[in-house]
Design brief:
Layout: H1 8-12, H2 34-37, E1 40-41, H3 43-51, H4 57-61, E2 64-65, H5 67-79, H6 84-99, H7 103-110, H8 121-137, H9 141-155, H10 162-175, H11 179-190, H12 198-211, H13 215-228, H14 232-248, H15 252-263, H16 270-286, H17 292-299
Parallel strand pairs: 1-2
Helix pairs in contact: 3-5, 3-6, 5-6, 6-7, 8-9, 9-10, 10-11, 11-12, 12-13, 13-14, 14-15, 14-16, 15-16, 16-17
Length: 300
């Protein structure tokens, strides 16, 4: 996961100590002004921020933004390029565009500036991901999915946030009930060894495949889920899926194996216990294994 303690300004700063912004500083003597009461950042407010040399991220993020504010920032950048005021204005614009989910316009604008000479693709990588992540955290899943798809197309594999982007994209599609797209992203995620979402990704692929009656694929991913299980409940869920899928694809040996493992567990519900007995008995019959004990189980 990305570091939530790292501010957007720290992720996108230009590296020069003299240009770093104090993101915790507030604008003084502003709380009684009409613009602040209305929570609407106009041109005058933006110019005051610039003149004070203050990047007030917390204030900007809670305020509306007028075209005049954006114009004020742009005019400062145009008039005073490569100054601390210009960088302060640019950082303020960045925060506004991220908050309004319009990072593409910000990136297009910055590409016209000399500042892009010291910006790397990593900064663009970070901006696009953080903007999409914000939409995801706000449960705006359609916007999140679109932004994450853009990130995955442009920066993966190899991008800093590819694993998290796949995870968020898969979850977004799942929440939107776009299960085929979700399955595709979860499957891509399971190809990355050591990622922290392996267990959940395997579970979702297995679940979606099972609901689609693709029992062979479901079995494969229930087995992977079982191998990655972090606790007994997840292991039992995976084993139940393995047992059912084996039965549905008529893999009698696997059905016997998984049902036997299930029956060895403690504290099974009566329903699951009887289900396991049934699947194992059916597999014995199909294999024509009629030993005395097995016949007792079938008859019982």
């Amino acid at each position: 996961m990305t570091n939530k303690e790292e501010s957007l300004s720290n992720q996108t700063q230009n590296g020069s100590n003299e240009n770093k912004r104090n993101t915790t500083e507030t604008v003084t003597n502003k709380t009684n002004s009409n613009s602040m009461e209305e929570k609407n950042l106009n041109g005058e407010d933006a110019q005051n921020l610039i003149n004070n040399g203050t990047l007030c991220i917390g204030e900007i993020s809670n305020m509306g933004c007028t075209p005049e504010a954006i114009d004020a920032f742009k005019q400062t950048i145009s008039k005073y390029p490569n100054t601390s005021e210009a960088y302060s204005a640019l950082d303020g614009m960045e925060q506004i565009y991220v908050e309004t989910n319009n990072v593409a316009e910000y990136i297009a604008y910055t590409k016209t500036l000399n500042k892009m000479n010291i910006q790397s693709t990593t900064q663009e990588d970070s901006l696009i991901f953080v903007t999409a992540e914000l939409q995801y955290m706000m449960q705006n899943y359609e916007q999140a999915a679109a932004g994450l798809a853009t990130y995955l197309t442009r920066f993966c594999p190899g991008g800093r946030y590819c694993v998290n982007a796949m995870h968020y994209a898969a979850n977004s599609y799942y929440m939107l009930e776009q299960y085929e797209q979700a399955k595709e992203q979860y499957m891509e995620l399971t190809k990355i060894d050591g990622n922290p979402y392996m267990e959940k990704a395997c579970m979702r692929v297995a679940e979606i495949s099972y609901d689609q009656k693709d029992y062979s694929t479901a079995l494969t991913y229930f087995e992977r889920m079982y191998a990655a299980a972090s606790d007994q409940n997840m292991a039992q869920t995976a084993l139940l899926g393995m047992m059912r899928c084996s039965h549905y694809i008529n893999n009698n040996d696997a059905s016997i194996k998984h049902a036997t493992s299930m029956l060895a567990l403690e504290d099974l519900s009566n329903a699951i216990y009887n289900e396991a007995l049934y699947y194992r008995a059916s597999a014995y019959l199909n294999n024509k294994q009629y030993s005395e004990n097995e016949c007792v189980e079938i008859i019982g």
